[in-house]
Amino acid sequence: MAKLLLSLHVLAAVLFIGPVAVAVSMYPRRAKAALVEGPEQATAAASVRLLHRITQVYALLGIAVPILGVVTAQVMDVLGDPWLTVSIVLTALAAGLLLFFVLPGQQATVDALDAEPAAAAAERERAERGLRLLPMTAGVFNLLWAVVTVLMVIRPGSTTGA
Question: How much is the pLDDT for 49?
Answer without folding.
Answer: 98
